[in-house]
Sequence to fold (155 residues):
Amino acid sequence: MNLQTFEGDLLLYDTLDGGDVHITDGLFVSDRAYDTAIYLSLFGGNKEDSGKVKNRKTWWGNTLEGTAEAEKIVSRFQYIITAMPLCVKNIKAAEAAAVIDLQWIIDLGIADEIESECQTRERGIFILIINILKNKNTIFKGSYITSWTAKQEAA
Fold:
């Protein structure tokens, strides 16, 4: 199958209150790249699943018979920003979790390296910047602006 005949996944994009779909001229827009897969890797699954151990909080789709390990969605990044307080230690953990959530891109040979950088803006606004490289060339760069929804630590 080549790119001319592949319509791709439904294009999802990031919003401050969750993801949304693109609609143009009354039709859903397709994603012919990896935008949706990357978005689902970071924000899909069950936000209560830390991914640290096998547990009952895994996303239901991960339990379907025949689901390959590489196709399972855990979203450790999403867990951190919804369950852990915003502090420097957890920001570093979120950066590392994003790379782990996207490891499948390296495992499939699509990329050689994944870089993640997290920034905070006004209270509770959080930005994740992902840069994916193949042979030292950027093949994907995206940023996700979201709310860090976990309760803040008392000062």
Notes: Residues 1-6 have pLDDT under 50 and may be disordered.
